[in-house]
Backbone:
């Protein structure tokens, strides 16, 4: 499955400079649900022994992945909301995320109703680069007094260091495709 | 399936005033993927003869529904992006949406690469009230020269009239739960 994903990234990904690979044609904007379900089955395999009770992701591009993963694990998922969404419960966990890609800080929120101290949470996202979003999601799990079972990522840009920082802190980080480098229009995987 | 959904809305939905039913605990923020897959199977049934080539939705709460629907139909899905997302292709279809709930106008965008004149598009969303979001999505399909096969909606607030406006224009609108009224904390379905 992982080889299939890497091939797809090479074939359909769009490289911009030395640090961006766009996967807008099959993951991030247009989405191939068959590929996503394959990704979910692989993630399920890697966390099969971890007694996950909930999947947590962040809008928008994490949602479809989290949906298939949660379905396969037989648990609900929650997506953290960006921006100041109205109609959200007043009682929320909140964290700040700095996006290196967009060079902005935004806040993410999860209503306190949906994660509690009995939860063992699998954090899911499409990309892991410096780790800003994952850091915010882990912060929210901690605020809830829940346990972080680990993080499942579709594409890790290993050269940006976020993944290894979390591993050094003892988190189980499972990234399906780990990008070692993007140079002269060529992408290399670990 | 539809009766199951209606029961779930009555049990777990949260009524606010006479026009809002919040489904944050199972559709909109925390999500029950088993229910969503059941919803997708029902939508598939209703559009089985329509030769859909693509599913189109809008971030964020439409994404999980669209993912399961697209998987069941065996086609890709595209989610329109709100706000001024960076990294989006410069060549986009764009439409304006007025949200009555939030009393704001926002723009939605789809890269021109992902819908074309050969597509027969199923528009999917969680709610249909006045029809602002659906109107924007239909506009984008029209800009692409593609065909609107119809719209699949989880919850239609029929008393706000959007659904019947589209039906009067000849669109096939399939809403699984149609809310006739919300009064004194009680929700009634058509």
Residues:
């Amino acid at each position: 499955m992982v080889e299939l994903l890497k091939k797809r990234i090479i074939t359909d990904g769009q490289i911009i400079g030395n640090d961006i690979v766009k996967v807008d044609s099959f993951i991030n904007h247009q989405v191939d649900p068959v590929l996503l379900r394959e990704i979910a089955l692989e993630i399920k395999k890697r966390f099969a022994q971890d007694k996950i009770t909930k999947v947590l992701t962040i809008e928008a591009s994490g949602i479809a992945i989290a949906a298939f993963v949660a379905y396969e694990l037989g648990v609900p998922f929650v997506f953290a909301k960006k921006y100041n969404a109205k109609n959200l419960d007043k009682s929320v966990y909140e964290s700040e995320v700095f996006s290196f890609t967009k060079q902005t800080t935004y806040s993410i929120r999860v209503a306190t109703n949906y994660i509690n101290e009995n939860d063992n949470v699998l954090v899911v996202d499409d990309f892991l680069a410096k780790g800003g979003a994952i850091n915010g999601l882990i912060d929210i799990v901690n605020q809830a007094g829940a346990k972080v079972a680990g993080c499942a990522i579709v594409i890790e840009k290993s050269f940006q260091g976020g993944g290894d920082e979390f591993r050094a802190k003892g988190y189980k980080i499972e990234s399906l495709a780990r990008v070692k480098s993007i140079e002269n229009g060529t992408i290399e995987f670990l």
